[in-house]
Every structure is written in C-alpha cells, then in structure tokens.
Specification:
This protein is an all-alpha fold. The chain has 4 helices and no strands.
Length: 125
C-alpha cells in the first residue's frame, strides 16, 4: 500500500513540476520575444540587463525541473550545484570585464546576487 501511495505522490509531484515547467517556458518565451522586439527602446540598460538575468535564472529553473522530472531529486542536486558554480564563474567574469561601465547600484545588486549564490552553494555541503 505504501508503494502505491509513494507512486501517487511522485505522480502528483511530477504533474506540478510539469505545470511549473510549462509556466516558466511561456514566461521565458514572452520575455525573450519582448527583448528582441523592444530592447532598442528601453530607457535603461539596467532594465535590459535585469531581464537577461531573469532569463538566465529561468533557464536554470527549466533545466532543474527537466532533470527532476526525468531523473529524480538526486541527480537534480548535482545539476543545481553545477549550475550555481557556473553562474558564479560567469558573473565573476562579467564583473571583472564590466565593472568600469556599471553604475554603482547595478554593481551592488550583482555583488549581492553573487553572495546569495555562494550561500546557496554552501547549503548543499
């Protein structure tokens, strides 16, 4: 009986994950289309950079959900650590190359995000 209940719960979890995946993909698609069509009229480069960062986060979430659905939670943990490490490296490189061109508020927020990523990464170990 417990095995059937476990399968039912797993099925419900995957159903919610699929719904969440569909939602994320739709948001990702709308934002990407908006960026492609209107990036030249934005009044602030920070807004565009923020939208791109949100898109990167959504891409990570989409990958994580796909892995959870396909492989379960154990594989997902490894992928999450890998994705966080990748984002840390990419953002660090971005900061190293663009600090001179960033306003102080964007720099501050980006550094805060890096700290949150490090904390998140530490929580896996």
């Amino acid at each position: 009986m417990d095995n059937k209940k476990s399968r039912d719960n797993k099925g419900l979890e995957n159903e919610r994950r699929i719904d969440q995946l569909v939602n994320l993909v739709e948001k990702n698609t709308r934002t990407q289309r908006h960026l492609e069509e209107h990036s030249d009229i934005s009044s602030s480069p920070d807004n565009i950079e923020h939208a791109k960062e949100v898109q990167r986060q959504r891409s990570d979430q989409i990958e994580n959900l796909k892995n959870k659905i396909a492989y379960g939670d154990a594989h997902n943990r490894e992928k999450q650590v890998e994705n966080i490490e990748k984002r840390l490296r990419y953002t660090e490189g971005y900061l190293n190359n663009n600090t001179d061109h960033m306003d102080s508020e964007t720099f501050k927020k980006t550094k805060e995000k890096q700290e949150h990523r490090k904390e998140n990464l530490d929580s896996y170990f």
